[in-house]
Specification:
The protein is 40% helix and 15% strand. It contains 19 helices and 15 strands. A 4-stranded antiparallel beta sheet has the order 2-5-4-3, sandwiched between helices. It has a 3-stranded antiparallel beta sheet with strand order 7-9-8, sandwiched between helices. It is flat.
Amino acid sequence: MWMRLEGYTGRGTMVRAWTVRGGQYGEREEQALDEGVVIAGWEEVGDLSGCASISDVGDVLARAYPDELPGRVDNWKHQLWRFITMETGDLVVMPRKFLGVVAIGRLTGGYEYRSEAAPGFRHTRKVEWVRTQVERAAIGGDLRDSIGAFLTVSELRRRDAAHRVETLAQTGVDPGYKGAVEPPTDPDALEQDVRDEGTRQLTARDLIGLWGWQRRTGDVIDLVDRELAARGLQVAPHFTEVQLDGLITVSAEETTLTGETTHESSGTDLGHTPTRIAGEDLSRHWRIGSLPFARDVVTVGFDEPLSRAITRMVQGDFSQLPVVNRNNVLRGVVTWESIARAQLGHRGATIAAALDPHPLTAQEQEELFVRIDDVQRHGFLIVTDGDNLVIGILTASDLADQLKLRVEPFILLGEAERRLRRLTDRLPVDELPTGSGVRKTRAAGKYLTLGQYPEVLKDDACWARLAWPYEQDDLVRRVTAVKDYRNELAHWDMDAPETKTEALTETKQLLSLLKLIDHDPRP
């Protein structure tokens, strides 16, 4: 995988990172380190030195793989073109399988084809390895997601990637990035970005916004999934597994090299392990990542004194505190219960003495309702990523807040509808308007739907008989807005409670107005 960003050496060079797939037990990476090269696969492809354009590379691939799908060949030609056009002085990043580290080096030579080399080692670039064991846990999650895309060669262009890789090479520490990233302007621009760079990061909100949507209803999820598949794109994590403003990484769907496998087992590489099961409807399954939970987690180091943990827990009114190493990798947890056991057992005043080394954890892609019992029994789940870095904590209090947030709208809507029904029941059937089937519904002895009440209130004769002390147009507008809100909630809309607070306020205000003129009978 490679990346390009202006400003690295003062001459506008490209900084690129690359990854190799399919090397069993990581032997290709180890040999590449020993030989001082980076390699590409495609062993059936001959010398590419004569290719003067990306089209030339495509022609070579088409001859080498006549039976492959055009979209797959197109994906491959972009990767190989990146590989042969990387400039001397570029930085390269190579994930090392099964070791939890990456190697970072600087290119020292142009493209070379070694016809006598073993398969998989024929397309090469010489490199001087600067740092061969940068811990993955030291790399920010956004950068790890880009480095870990299922591609042999891809570009890391955004979120100060060049500066961050350079800093990692020098210090082993990622300075991170806190600014926003401009999303693509439309789906075609997203597809072009992936084709040019290999990956494209954006938020779940920005992704669905490319198709003109603001919330993730079931229909919207299906639509975006179909559109991505039609364009040969995949997204990790899935855009339903994160909060609306959570980052996702889009890459080409088909990244398999001939004779090599696409997916690695969890924790062995920087990429995501796909969690979606064929035929599974994610819109019906809340994921832990789609639920708001504390992400700025207060932690304590393993070597810190227990008194520091106690102070932080008292100050923050915490029941637990994750214990992490210097890279924020989870090592355990301390709780008031574990602290009490340590003190009663005279084990000492250290974190180690009070440490529970096996806390319950969860990952963002896990189904929420499968883990609710764990939260109820233990009070919390520590949310980690694939490298066991602490990214948040989900508590029983969080679940209670979400229960209120998601149940309250239905209670309010039900109460408003009940009072509207009771207030309008006094209207004679033969005086009701005929529009929207209002009169027919009442004549059949059925309740009016919330969507039919605006028709009743808009009718001047009905409004006069009701004699409500409000402005007719204002009440019609309010009831119509509440009706629209109910329709959104009736469909699966996992973001409605968070993104429609104004509609919830409108519902509360309507209910207050109705209560003034509709008095419950005394008990």
